[in-house]
Write a structure and sequence with these properties.
143 residues; TIM Barrel; 3-stranded parallel β-sheet; 7 helices
Length: 143
C-alpha cells in the first residue's frame, strides 16, 4: 500500500475546498477515511493560513459541516484522540477497511475504546453505528 495515498487524499480535500465546490454546493457531504487522511494533524495550520485563500466559506465551517471522518482500519487510540480533538464527535464514524483490516481487529478496537476514557457508552454507540445510520440513511442490524 502506497504511503503517499493518505497525504494525497488529504491534499485533494484541500483542492476541493480551493476549487470553491463547497461554496457552490453548501450541503455537499464528503466522508474521508483513515482517521482523516493526515488532515487532523495539520488542520490548525490550514485554518491559520486559509484567510488568504479568498473563499466564501471559512474552512472551519466546511470542516465542521461538510466533512465526516472514518477510522477505516486505523485501530490506534492516539490518532483517534487527535481526531476527536479536531473534529466534532458527530462527524466521526467507525469503519474496518475490509479486506485490508479484519472485523476481529475492528472489534478489538471497539473494546480498546470502551476500556479507555475516550468515549462513554452513548458516544461509543454513536461512533460505532448511529452516526452512519443518520448520515447514510440506513439501518444497522445486529446479528
Amino acid at each position: 500500500m502506497a504511503g503517499g495515498r493518505h497525504t494525497e487524499t488529504g491534499l485533494n480535500i484541500l483542492r476541493l475546498y480551493c476549487s470553491v465546490i463547497f461554496d457552490k454546493f453548501k450541503i455537499l457531504k464528503i466522508i474521508i477515511s483513515h482517521m482523516g487522511e493526515m488532515l487532523p494533524f495539520q488542520i490548525d495550520r490550514i485554518f491559520s493560513m486559509s484567510g488568504r485563500w479568498g473563499r466564501e466559506r471559512d474552512p472551519r465551517e466546511v470542516w465542521r459541516t461538510n466533512i465526516w471522518v472514518t477510522t477505516s482500519g486505523m485501530f490506534s487510540l492516539a490518532p483517534l484522540f487527535c481526531l476527536l480533538q479536531m473534529r466534532l464527535m458527530d462527524h466521526v464514524l467507525y469503519s474496518v477497511d475490509y479486506p485490508f483490516s479484519t472485523n476481529e481487529r475492528g472489534k478489538e478496537f471497539i473494546e480498546q475504546i470502551r476500556q479507555s476514557s475516550l468515549m462513554d457508552e452513548k458516544q461509543l454507540g454513536m461512533f460505532a453505528y448511529r452516526i452512519a445510520e443518520s448520515l447514510l440513511k440506513v439501518k444497522a442490524e445486529s446479528g
